[in-house]
Amino acid sequence: MDFVCDICCKEFDLRCHLAKHLRTVHSNTKPFKCEICFKIFGKKTHLEEHHMIHTKERPYECDMCDQTYPSKTELRQHHSIHPRKRPYVCKTCDKTFPSKSLLKKHCNIMHTVGRPYVCEACGKAFKTRRCLNDHYAVHTEERPYVCDLCSLAFKRKDALNRHRLTHLNKRFFVCNLCGKNYSLRTSLGIHYRDEHGVAI
């Protein structure tokens, strides 16, 4: 059984992978704080990389010129100065890639059988017409779904429906460990993680 993200339609084999995706990609919470400069981060790994600014560590080394960097992001930015070969060619559309893993990711997203609904703007393929229609919103600034209570506008109907729950005093999602309740499932998941150290 697939678990589908209501926000971006990405699919996961396990519920815990969907929960992690919601927490790291769609959550605005940043629970990790640097004790030196108090900057906050959404992921523990980002905080750990940030600490290297203070410790002057530079563990990421370029395999082409031996320059070192404190973060993977800076190393990736540095890599752009080196001419890159793109030997891996997509047999379907002739697009080229520097690694086999990027080619595979491209093929899974763009050309996988069972994803018959293709975006005319970018070529990304989807399993359902609904996911394709939701995806079209990324190519436009239109926000046609407007909350009738506060006038906040959304690109997708499911986002508006989730937002409307925040106006209700009904809280459908209850923590079975402490009894706190929430109007959104994602809020309950964040509560489990932050208060009880449990991923759902």
UniProtKB/TrEMBL annotation:
InterPro entries: Zinc_finger (IPR050331), Znf_C2H2_sf (IPR036236), Znf_C2H2_type (IPR013087)
SUPFAM superfamilies attached to this UniProt entry: beta-beta-alpha zinc fingers
Source organism (scientific name): Araneus ventricosus (Orbweaver spider)
GO biological process: developmental process; regulation of gene expression
Example of a GO MF term: zinc ion binding
Subcellular location: Nucleus
Residue intervals of the C2H2-type domain: 3-31, 32-59, 60-87, 88-116, 117-144, 145-172, 173-196
GO cellular component term of the entry, any: nucleus
UniProt entry keywords in alphabetical sequence: Metal-binding, Nucleus, Repeat, Zinc, Zinc-finger
Chief location: nucleus
Name recorded for this polypeptide: Zinc finger protein 782
Superkingdom of the source species: Eukaryota
